Amino acid sequence: FYNKALGLEVAQRLDFETFTLIYLSNADSPFEVELTVNKGRTEPYALGDGYGHLAVSVADLDSEHDRIGALGFNPRKIVEFNHDGVRIARFF
Question: Which 8-state DSSP code applies to residue 17?
Answer without folding.
Answer: S
